[in-house]
Every structure is written in C-alpha cells, then in structure tokens.
Design brief:
With about 325 residues, the protein is of the alpha/beta class. Helix content is about 35%, strand content about 15%. Helix 9 links the parallel strand 8 and strand 9.
Length: about 325
C-alpha cells in the first residue's frame, strides 16, 4: 500500500501537514499505524444498513473533528484501541465479511484512508461484492471525495452544525458548515441518494447517501438551520436520520456545556419541522433514553444491544 499520504498529512480539513510515518501525531492524534477499537457485526445502525445480519463495523481510533461531546470519546479522543498492520486489518475485514454482514462499515475512516483504500481494493480483487460504507463526521475535504468514491458504495456523513458559532464551540472550526455541505454535494453527485430505500431493512441499501443529524441540547436553532439548509440544497427526497440519542459525556460535565439530554419540547420542535419541510425518506428517532447502543469500548463487545438482540440474549 502507498503511505505517501501520511508523510505530509492533509487527509482532513485541518491540513496539519505532519509526517505521521515518522510517528508524529496529526490533529487526529494518530500516527500512520492503524488503530482500531472494535470490529464486528453491529445492529445499532439504521435498518437500511443493519438488515437482518448486521452491519460489519470497523471502528477506527482518533478523529479529525474532535467534538467534545462525542459518544465514542473513548476512541475518538482517548484513543483506546489496538494497532494493526495493513495485512492484519485486511485479514480481520475478510473474516468479518465471512460472518455474513450486509456491508463493511468504516467508522471515522478519513484519517486512515490509505489503509481503507488498500482493504477495499484487495477485497474487490478477491471477488467480495458487498457494499463498502463510509461512516463519517461530515468534516471531509471535498476534493478527496472522488478518491473515496472509487471504492466506496455508500456515504453516511453526519451534518452536525449549520451555525458556525456552534461548530466553533464544539469542534473548534467555524468552517464546518461550508466544508460539510461541499463534501456532501460531491457525495450526492457521485452516488445519488440511498438505494434502495427500505426503512424496514428487508432489502439493505447497496449504494447512495444518507445524512445523519444529532439534535444537541440547548441548540434546537442549530438543528433548525441544518434541516432548512439540507432541504434547500438537496430537496425533500434526501434520506435523513434525525437522532435524539444525545447522552452527556464526562467532558460535557467538566465544561458545563451540553450537560443534559434533549427535552421533549426540543424533540417535538425538530420532529414537527421535519414534517413541515416534507422530507420523504426519514428515520426519526423517538425520545428514549435507553443505552443499548451507548458504547463502552473497554468491553470486548462495546454495545450491549448487540448482545441482547433477539437470538443472542
């Protein structure tokens, strides 16, 4: 595989330019040695991806966004995980495919893109045809989306922030909205909307784009701006997943920011706006506070919901 992209790393919009091959850490706080925290069938994604046999998730450690409230903070900020060579990563991906998952789901992939490109190309050479899914923060360099799309079938980016001041507060870059919308335009141009759209998961998605948005407590105005921006840019057929699952992390309490779940009124306001804007293809999460898919990456299986699903209990 080609490590050149790690030598003066500009794999994300931070453009830090460090030589990760020499062991220096980029803004993602990772070197050029791949680190993953969890790999296996996962049933906490939308039914379009989990289907009946699960989404084959590979959770990468580190993150270029660095949102302080990230529910995956143990791996995105604290960097739990194990180091793998490119061939070890390929071997584990190959073994995951053999478990019968509907797709390979690369979670927070952009800062380890050379490794993922190697895995995808090799698996395709071996005749493995399941979809490859790029599950990301939305904070991607738009000019790299063409490279991703050479091997990626499905894009599932977040669209976290439409208000620059909220982006600056949460991840330190007020440019997030303009960067995210530019990257998303390119993803939609290259892959279209999610196909097929089967919210029951009987026919898992094979190609296209679905956008996720997490409602943040005290920032319904940001969610309103996100939904209106997406409706204006992409129309009512854009597939969406609007999530209400926010759980405060230790950093939220330490900072005294976002230190509560969202309220029923906040949820209702955003729910009503989704209907008012007439989005047709939407997963709209109910306001529930279960923690089946709130991860603990110190455990062998980070998600209790994967253990307790029917047939596994």
């Amino acid at each position: 595989m080609n490590f050149d992209l790690y030598r003066e790393c500009r794999l994300c919009p931070r453009n830090c330019g460090v030589n990760r091959v020499e062991g220096k850490l980029g803004c993602c706080r990772e070197s050029a040695t791949c680190r993953i925290s969890s790999i296996g069938p996962h049933f906490g994604e939308e039914p379009s991806f989990t289907g009946t046999r699960g989404s084959g998730t590979i959770f990468f450690s580190g993150c270029s966004s660095g949102c302080f409230f990230c529910q995956n903070y143990q791996i995105s900020i604290e960097h739990l995980g194990r180091l793998l060579s490119p061939e070890e990563l390929l071997g584990e991906a190959r073994a995951l495919v053999r478990q019968g998952v509907h797709n390979l789901n690369f979670v927070t992939p952009d800062h380890f893109w050379p490794h993922i490109l190697h895995v995808c190309r090799e698996l395709r050479r071996e005749g493995i045809a399941i979809p490859f899914l790029f599950n990301s923060s939305g904070y991607q360099r738009p000019d790299l989306v063409d490279s991703y799309a050479e091997v990626i079938d499905i894009f599932m980016p977040d669209f976290k922030f439409a208000l620059p001041e909220v982006a600056k507060q949460c991840m330190g870059d007020p440019r997030y909205p303009e960067i995210a919308v530019s990257a998303l335009r390119k993803m939609v141009e290259l892959k279209g909307f999610l196909d097929p759209w089967d919210p029951m998961g009987q026919e898992p998605a094979r190609r296209g784009v679905l956008v996720r948005h997490l409602i943040l407590p005290g920032h319904a105005d940001n969610s309103v701006a996100v939904l209106k921006l997406l409706r204006h840019e992409f129309g009512k057929l854009l597939p969406l997943s609007v999530m209400s699952q926010f759980h405060p992390t230790p950093a939220c309490y330490e900072r005294g920011e976002l230190a509560r779940p969202i309220t029923p009124d906040e949820h209702r306001q955003i729910h009503d706006l989704v209907l008012e804007l007439d989005f047709r293809h939407v997963y709209l999460q109910t306001l529930a506070h279960d923690i089946d898919f709130l991860p603990d990456f110190q455990k062998k299986e980070p998600f209790s919901g994967n253990i307790r699903r029917p047939g596994n209990a």
